[in-house]
Amino acid sequence: ADKQFQAEGKNSAAVLDKLAKVEDVAAANAVDIADAFRTGGNSLAEFSKSIDDSIGLIAALREQTRKSGSEIGTFLKTIQTRIFAAGEARDAVEGLGIAIENLDGSLRPTKDVLNDLKTAFDGMTESQAASAAKAIAGVRQFESLIATLNSIDRANELARESAAAAGAAEEKRTITDAKLERQLGKLVAAGETLAEALG
Q1: Nearest-angstrom CA–CA distance, 123 and 121
Q2: Distances in Å between the alpha carbon of 146 and those of 90, 137, 138?
Q3: N or C: the chain end with fewer CB closer than 10 Å?
Q4: In this predicted model, what pLDDT tens digit does every residue of 124-138 receive, in sequence order?
Q5: H-helix or E-strand containing 2?
Q6: What tens digit of pLDDT does each residue of 77-117 get?
Q7: Rg for the chain (alpha carbons), in Å?
């Protein structure tokens, strides 16, 4: 996070809050997200321009596909390259009426492009969507692109949860400590009962 998101990733307490919150509300854990960051490299920062959006997208894809964090990071790195590099994939995206660049010539965040792709895919038949996904993501990754588009609303929801996660790590630690204290209390009570039974 520090390397990929500079100032946004330097506050490790805030990043831990984000991960703790998303672990609580999604079927993904911090290890999955860390693996995706490690494998996806800097493309993840370029992908969304936001650590919250990246965490949301990784967690939503993990829920949708059950793929490992490493596989998700590899896919996100691949799709980033395919969409923005000149070639058939970019032509396919632009052919759907979706802009890759802003008016000033800078590249749009990939997540914005994916949100637009979802809208375009919603109007297609299953066969048309599969053909378009193959043109954009390639034969090996087209199913992951469809899964990404199917989970984009969930990714947006999880990104909002991540953004509003202040204090989540401390809250989680407090809950864990309370559980541990209860378990220790039960162990002590069981030990006392055993000691009485043994005289």
Answers
A1: 5
A2: 16, 9, 12
A3: C
A4: 999 999 999 999 999
A5: helix 2-10
A6: 888 888 888 899 999 999 999 999 998 988 888 888 999 99
A7: 22
